[in-house]
Design goal:
3-stranded parallel sheet; about 10% strand; alpha/beta; 5 strands; two-stranded antiparallel sheet; about 140 residues
Length: about 140
């Protein structure tokens, strides 16, 4: 994990987001837990998702979303500053979003979700003409992906 963290920080371009995937049983090992905590502390990304697509944080609109503050005007990477940040947190270095390794129902953005196009159509209709009556249809369509 230390080598992957160094590679991500030093070789990859961009500082917006990163993902780590780890099985809960693996994470229970104290050495693995320490390595994960160290990786989270050292990764220079504005948002790190653990078992989650980092864009979930962007979509939820509450967590800060932006490049890591190590960027400069000479090396802008993923930009300076954050958007969203509903709670107006100051001095942000990064956000961390954590979730289970497997999820149910299958999120509509999963490539294997067979009803993603139907969910998207319902969401667009909801956005065009919002109504709480449309929410159950969105949820039920998403459940059967």
């Amino acid at each position: 994990m230390q080598a992957a963290t160094a590679f991500s920080n030093d070789k990859l371009w961009g500082t917006l987001s990163a993902s780590l995937y780890i099985h809960p049983k693996t994470e229970q090992d104290s050495d693995v837990k320490k390595a994960l905590d160290r990786a989270l502390a050292e990764l220079r990304y504005g948002l790190v998702g653990i078992n989650h697509w980092p864009a979930v944080a962007y979509g939820s609109m509450t967590p800060p979303w932006g490049g890591h503050p190590s960027a400069t005007l000479a090396n802008i990477q993923s930009g300076l500053g954050f958007v969203h940040n509903t709670f107006m947190l100051e001095g942000i270095e990064k956000g961390v979003v954590r979730g289970p390794l497997t999820v149910f129902p299958k999120p509509p953005w999963f490539i294997t979700n067979k009803s993603a196009h139907k969910v998207a159509e319902r969401i667009v209709r909801f956005e065009a003409e919002p109504s709480w009556l449309k929410v159950p249809g969105i949820a039920l369509t998403a459940l059967f992906g």
